[in-house]
Fold Histidinol-phosphatase.
Amino acid sequence: MIDLHTHHSRCGHATGSLRDYVTAALDKGVKVLGLSDHTPMFAAEEDHALPRVAMPKSEFPSYIAEALALKEEFAHSIEILVSTEADFFGGRMDPYTEALSRYPLDYVIGSVHMFEGRDIFDARRWETVADDDLAAVKGRYFRAVAECARSRLFHVMGHVDALKGNHPKLGAVPAPAAADEMLRAIRDSGAVMEINTSGGTKMCGGWYPESDLLERAHHFRVPITFASDAHVPERVCDQYPEVVKVLGDIGFRTWTVFRRGTARTCPLF
Ligand SMILES: [Zn+2]
Ligand SMILES: [Zn+2]
């Protein structure tokens, strides 16, 4: 079992210490655990710009130090990977690249959380959007993720259709041309797409992405990895067996993990 996407209390909206997530992973028999809390708002003036979104900039070194210490302490029982989930703001990533280059990260998750000026999970953003416009909006989100992949700053593309999180109707809305463009961009950038099981913590339920996108990803030979996106320790590897079953039926045979930026595959089952 692997899980490359977990958070903890430093971000201000998750519970549990890093050690709690390691302990939960050990209890479940997880072999590879990625610690990937949200990056600080590196582009902001203030040290702690958004206390309920991400840790202070000044806290990042101790996050990495604690993760590295746990990696060493548990080296004989579990492989811990040290990572972070960064927001993608098109064209304004220099403070992130500069800050992250100072740390021995195994990989970086790139996620589009801010889209067309608002948080993707802000349910109020949908109050003024007509159902007829949803396919176009979804297509634009996929293109934003494609741009995120093309930046080549990231190893893993986070929750690629999370726009549906608090507007479930979006899940079934087709946007095939933009979806295919995004999947090709992910593959061509050398990044992988995560299968993220945290949809159940939002209104949409289920996983990111939808199964039609998983099938298209297999068609385009996009490598994949597993992500619980746990914000509580108990969610580590949540729904792992169900995901393996569905992916195996589609035809996937391997996961991808990253060690110091280098991709390695491991068997799905
Ligand atoms: Zn979070
Ligand atoms: Zn995220």
Observations:
- The pocket of zinc ion (ligand 1) is lined by residues 7, 11, 13-14, 38, 231 (CB under 6 Å).
- The chain has seven helices and eleven strands.
- The chain has one domain: 2-267.
- Residues 134-150 form the longest helix (17 residues).
